[in-house]
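chain below, 423 aa
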Amino acid sequence: MSSQTLTDTVQLTPILEASRRAAVDLAAAPTQVKNRALAAVSAALRGNVPDILTANRADLAAGRENGLSGGMLDRLMLDEARIEGLAAAVEQIALLTDPIGEVVRGKSLPNGIRISQVRVPFGVVGVIYEARPNVTVDIAAIALKSGNAVVLRGGSAAENTNRVLVGLLQQAIGSSGLPAESVQTIDPFGREGATLLMQARGHVDVLIPRGSAGLIQAVVNQSKVPVIETGAGVVHIFLDESANADWAVEIVHNSKVQRPSVCNALETLLVHRDAAARLLPGVLAKLAASGVTVHGDARVREIFPAAVPATEEDWGTEYMGLEVSVAVVDSLDDAIAHIRRYSTGHTESIITNDVVNAERFLAEVDSAAVMVNASTRFTDGGEFGFGAEVGISTQKLHARGPMGLPELTSTKWIVRGSGQVRA
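prediction:
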């Protein structure tokens, strides 16, 4: 271990120990106290917009100088509307049912013992993410309501913004009577801090990465702490032969253009060969009018010559910008096979008027969210009524899809007896 690593470990340990102490207090905190803290957080966001924007402008300027992509800059950017959206999301979380203490199941045994499985917090949640200051607020608020302390590593791209946001969060939470250390950042430790967080088994109960496929895989591969994997979004829409043309145009456009830098944005469009000539001209013309570059296979380019040739790499690419891959397929079977090969398991949608095709798609496509006749942009904690989200889990253990309050809990068994002993 290098001397710098040893120094960082010594300095990081007190932070993690403080988080563990805060987690004990949070686990026992009444709902009304947690809601009071959330109200203070919301007020702090609204009351400090100029300070947040000043810090964010510094991060954006540095990001442009360092060559951040357009998609990353969009994720990094805060404005008054986005800050208001964050404050409103925190208020929504306060209105949600507190999951802690919820009885998942229970019964009385023949010997009179009563057992019940109840929700409890994880304890200390570590989060590693990049260029997403909204995550700082969303995860802190969800962790707070679910009784968890959180340790954040938000990345250098958003360092100034996150410093201001974490300071506001700590002040607001402390003013409500809960430990200010309920939310902490290890950004000052840089990449070495992220590595140490991944190794902090015993201090951190679960680790959640959010960001690029490379970041997520690095955390999954290197972490000694249990990881809930949130996935990159190579998201598909399939237009079958019966698809309504107006729905196809509007749903595809919304899925790609409404906010192209996020993980539930469309990346690959598939269209049945019998509908390609009917649907593609209108669908692709509207995308092109919005500045979208179309990467098409040979059959797509026959119908839409403005498309650039698609490569094998395109089918597995999360563009996070105004680009989309488009292919013509011969059947629903071929569409499902393409999705199975290239999807990251995030979100897929079929546009169809055929009930049998819709039900087959729902049953056979194995992703966290599978849709019929709806924009992929609906895979979102806020849209699902969770107030906000920790992330979109693409794994199958513990949680899958948008992660809200219940997904930041574990369970324990409560056993109540009256002198029984086992025979």
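The mean pLDDT is 94. Residues 146 and 187 are 24 Å apart (CA to CA).
thats it, cya
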